[in-house]
Request: fold
Amino acid sequence: MTTSQTAASQTTPPAERLVLGAMMFGTAVDEATSFAVLDRFVDAGGRWIDTADCYAFWASESGYGGQSEELLGRWFAARPGVRDRILLATKFGAEPRDAASWPASRTGLSAEAINAQIAGSLRRLGTDHVDLVWGHMEDRSVPVEETADACAALVSDGVAARIGLSNHPAWRVERARRHAVGQGTEPFSAVQHAYSYLQPRPGVRMGNHRFGRLSDDLVDLAAVEGLEVWAYTPLLSGAYDNPAKPIPELFDHPGTTQRLAVLDDVAAQVGGSRGQVVLAWLTARGIRPMLGGSKVHQLDAAVAAMALELPAELLELMNGVDVTPPSA
Reply:
């Protein structure tokens, strides 16, 4: 964590450190529940809401996305003035072109595709700008310099305040940033990847994103360059605290056993749940956790975690556990 990040964490209201992920709003999470969670988030002082143009194509009847952005647009319309109170992020590049052949067929990150996608997002959201826009998943059919130029143009045109990359390897993030700096245009200033206290076994691929996990290279790049880091799925979809949701098999190694023991110890000492301690740990590392909860009580627990201060000795204890098993 940089000095500026440390100072910010000490002055930022707790709920502002959290991102509310709206991925399943409008599909698996109905409108009434979505509105209730959104309202509670704003009332608690939360600001960042994250969505994407492809959310949630896999849960929709059509096989295409847009439902989350459309729901947020209706929420903004029903809550005059709320758009000015929140910071809105959306993503492009992963919406299916052909619902039957994703991820091979998707919109991608060419300049033409970016311009068409952001126009659709703004229309669905009912706004003229977003506060952060992400390249959702890498597109190696397009030079990353083209993507960087198209995204920088969104900032110069006032369509986006900032730009970031999600699910990209560190070298492509840095190549895009060096290109922008050389051109005198807006560089990518944030990265978004999956990250939690537990770490998967080495070499395990997660889902459809080859580089979806936050790597040490990205952590180092972010620290050196002052990039903001967002972590999705920080609570492993509830597996830390919900007995009905086992820890995913890809985390099955001795390092997990050791980390869970430490997590239980710290949780008992601070009077929080496992998940709350994980969120507090991420925040202490300068990482902004993203909550994908679908219930108001889940949001309340996450907001409470943002106010949880972990003493230095407990952070040292948590950080001192090996994250992966020893080599054979």
Summary: The mean pLDDT is 93.
